[in-house]
Every structure is written in C-alpha cells, then in structure tokens.
Amino acid sequence: MTHPASDLPSPNPPTRPNQQYSVRRIRFGLIITLLGFAIFLIGTKPGISGLDRSPIIGFVQIAVFIIGLAFICLGGYISLMALWNRRPPSIAADFGLRIVATGFVIVVFSGMADVFGFGSHPLPGVPFFGGWQARGVMIGEALIAIGFLLLIPYAAPKSLEPPPPPPQ
Q1: What are the residue ranges of helices labelled H in 83-156?
Q2: How far is CA 157 from the centre of its chain?
Q3: What are φ and ψ of residue 100, in 5° steps?
Q4: Is residue 11 in a domain?
Q5: Which 3 state secondary structure label does DSSP give 161?
C-alpha cells in the first residue's frame, strides 16, 4: 500500500531533472572555440586588430590562423563530446572525429605547403599563400565541418512497436 504523500511532487525538485551532459565541459569547449575563432580572425584578417604589416598573407599569418583553427577543432570536440556524456559515441561520431582530424591535417599541409617545400613559392623565398593553398584550406575546413556534424548525438529513431508495459 502506498502512502498518499509519496504521490505528491517533492518540494525541492532538481533544477535539471533530465540533464544528460556536463554544462561545465560544454562551456569550457565553447570558450576554447571562441578563443580559437579570435586567433583565427587575427590570422586571416590582421587589419581588424591593427596588426596588418604586409599586403600578402605570409608565414606568420598562416601559422596564426592554423593555430586558431586548432583551438576551434579542440573546443568543438570537447563541446560535442560532452553531449555524449552518459552513453558511448556512435560509429558516426567516431568517423566524425577522424574526419575532423583529417581536415585539420589537410589545412596544415595546404597552408604550410611553401614551408614544407611542395608549394608554388618554396623556401628560401618568401612563403606566399596562393590560390591552390586557399582551395586546400577550404577543402580541409569543409571536412572539419562535416566531421563536426557527425559528432552531434542525434536521437535514435523510435521503434514502430509500442513500448513494453512497466513491471508490476
């Protein structure tokens, strides 16, 4: 026999009753992502912060926007994996992580092609960010975006069968 008071809601309900993720980890990841975006902007458009010293995009700018993109990838990974807190990530999420990493590697090698010696302006000349390098960076960034989309924990499809009755 149940007591009538046990059917009443508790006077102090939990503030987040069905929370399945860590808000602290998500906030930390978003802060890292925003910091990376600020660094990325300084690298791509240094005139915004008054740091533009050259009419071309050189080695320092390339290095800065690659470092900013690394922070974006790291922060995005932390935030999106926090959404998987109570359950193991799906195979799609595992593929997404690998696609994000592959996209970042493509960005690094495309952006630093001149420094590594296979670009159109190899060292000892002045490294220059050319059209082919820009295309490679954009392809890498597109792969990173696709990988992040795969990291999102989508809801499982509901079955067509009715749920089983609760145990008595």
Answers
A1: 91-111, 113-116, 131-151
A2: 25
A3: -60, -45
A4: no
A5: coil
Residues 6+ apart with CB under 8 A from 21: 82, 83, 84, 85, 86
User: Of 135, 142, 70, which is closest to residue 103 (Cα–Cα)?
Assistant: 142
Longest dimension (CA), the chain: 87
Residue with tokens 């499982």: 156
pLDDT in tens, the chain (168 residues): 555 555 555 555 445 555 567 889 999 999 999 999 999 999 888 777 776 666 667 778 889 999 999 999 999 999 999 988 778 899 999 999 999 999 999 999 998 887 777 777 666 766 677 788 889 999 999 999 999 999 998 876 666 666 778 887
Residue 4 lies in a domain: no
Give the integer Cα–Cα distance in Å for 13 and 21.
18
Give the 3-state secondary structure of residue 28.
helix
Residue 140 lies in a domain: yes
**Number of folded domains in the chain?**
1
- Domain, as residue range, for 75: 22-151
Cα–Cα distance list, 123 to 18, 38, 44 (Å): 57, 29, 22
Place of tokens 């997404």: 96
